[in-house]
Design goal:
With 440 residues, the chain is mostly helical. It has 21 helices and 4 strands. The chain has a two-stranded antiparallel sheet with strand order 1-2. Strands 3-4 form a two-stranded antiparallel sheet. InterPro entries: Cro/C1-type_HTH.
Length: 440
């Protein structure tokens, strides 16, 4: 609802008028765009030209959610953030930083993802530099692992979600996943977030059958996890944690253990970035438990993550055992038997992760052998190849080969210059200063 302010001394809303003139929008055009946004995100507001006129005359102000919708429209058109406060309007009272750490029901997860995409679509790090909170995933993990899938997955909104709509989400997730590997998580994350806010939010609030809902929620979970990976690579662990939590709830809703496994693997990486050895192992072991009954490829991914967790916890024997199990499980995977989100997990990636685990565990000979097996990694996976150079440089140092250490570290730094990855930049700084490998 709009809130009346009266006209005494209020004057005109000069800032709003200026922005509409800058965009060359009529009040009718702005009203239409805001109304469409409200429909897309499920806000029960009717916005007419007279509504906008009252805003311009400062006769009324929109409520917090309606102000957020109007500012989203303006921000997208102007390509910079417009806040409700800058227009003299109230901010949306919900605290996204706190609310997005809650693990409740499916509608809550949908609302939080919609808000996160809106905020993340504006390339302003101050909006998404939220604090990482250890321990948040404990209750969520237990619930996801033991609770049955949601009974009702149908949508009852106005707009019908078609198979083509869902396929577009899947195609875009794969596209931005490839771009992430080629250019780094800081390059296109805001663009992908804008797509999800514009295209996916209306679908989640739309009409679909339970069967379509299962596919839709799975596809959105994959998109949220892709966003989490990009945020992690852009050194925004708090944002990554929030995406992961919502993805976990979607995966639980459809009873998808593969995706629950993937979330735990993500959380192990985030815990490693925070230096929390116990949490790294907890999430890695949870991933192994979650993938019971999954495909061999998913099991191999969980097993190599456990190997890395044991290495991070300074346990060489368990590291070697887990690497062996990962290799054996990978060998049992039939070609084409994997899942779309794990299509990149090939023999080169497996051996690259094994090399990292052996390097961290101080096992130079085994690590070097695995590192050599990973050398034919596809060229388009530029960031992964830089990660491999970092691992190789550390293994060279373990062997006492200072010349190769310097050479590989220099190559890693040179190739990383073409990537927008704050995480890699920090890792290379640690490498060149002689500090041990500290992140997955």
């Amino acid at each position: 609802m709009a809130r009346s302010r009266g006209t005494d001394g209020a004057g005109l809303n000069e800032e709003l008028i200026k922005l509409l003139e800058q965009l060359r929008w009529s009040r009718r055009g702005f009203a239409h765009r805001v109304h469409a946004r409200c429909q897309a995100i499920g806000l029960p507001h009717t916005v007419s030209p007279s509504t906008v006129s009252r805003w311009c005359k400062n006769e009324t102000t929109p409520s917090g959610p309606l102000a957020a919708a109007a500012c989203h429209v303006l921000s997208g058109a102007l390509r910079h953030r417009v806040t409700p406060e800058s227009l003299g309007w109230p901010a949306d009272p919900s605290d996204i930083a706190t609310d997005s750490l809650e693990y409740t029901d499916l509608p809550h997860a949908v609302r939080m993802l919609s808000r996160l995409w809106e905020l993340d679509s504006v390339p302003d790090r101050s909006l998404v530099k939220n604090t990482f909170l250890p321990g948040v995933f404990g209750p969520a993990s237990r619930e996801a692992l033991v609770m049955p899938a949601d009974a009702d997955l149908a949508g009852r909104g106005t707009n019908k979600a078609t198979a083509a709509d869902i396929e577009l989400i899947e195609d875009q997730t794969q596209l931005y996943g490839r771009l992430d590997a080629q250019h780094g998580g800081g390059k296109f994350r805001s663009v992908f977030a804008a797509f999800l806010a514009t295209h996916t939010t209306p679908l989640l609030n739309g009409s679909f059958s339970a069967k379509a809902g299962r596919r839709l929620y799975g596809s959105v979970a994959d998109a949220a996890l892709a966003m989490a990976s990009m945020a992690y690579d852009d050194h925004l662990p708090g944002l990554a944690q929030r995406y992961d939590l919502q993805a976990m709830r979607l995966a639980q809703a459809i009873g998808d253990r593969d995706r629950i496994t993937r979330v735990h693997i993500h959380q192990a990486r985030l815990a490693a970035a925070q230096g929390d050895r116990r949490e790294v192992l907890t999430h890695a072991r949870s991933a192994v438990l979650a993938c019971d009954g999954a495909s061999s490829l998913v099991k191999a991914y969980a097993a190599i993550t456990e190997a890395r967790a044991w290495a991070f916890n300074q346990s060489p024997q368990r590291t070697e055992w887990a690497v062996g199990r990962a290799r054996e499980t990978f060998d049992r995977a039939r070609q084409g038997s994997g899942v779309d989100w794990l299509s990149w997990f090939d023999r080169h990636e497996l051996e690259g992760q094994a090399a990292w685990a052996f390097a961290v565990a101080g096992m130079a000979e085994a690590g070097t052998k695995a590192w050599e097996e990973a050398q034919d990694m596809p060229a388009e996976r530029k960031r992964d190849r830089v990660e491999l150079l970092i691992t190789g440089a550390w293994l060279a140092r373990l062997r006492g080969d200072e010349a190769q250490h310097v050479e590989l570290a220099q190559r890693a730094a040179e190739q990383a210059r073409h990537l927008i990855s704050r995480r890699l930049t920090l890792r290379i700084k640690r490498l060149t200063s002689g500090q041990p490998l500290d992140e997955f």
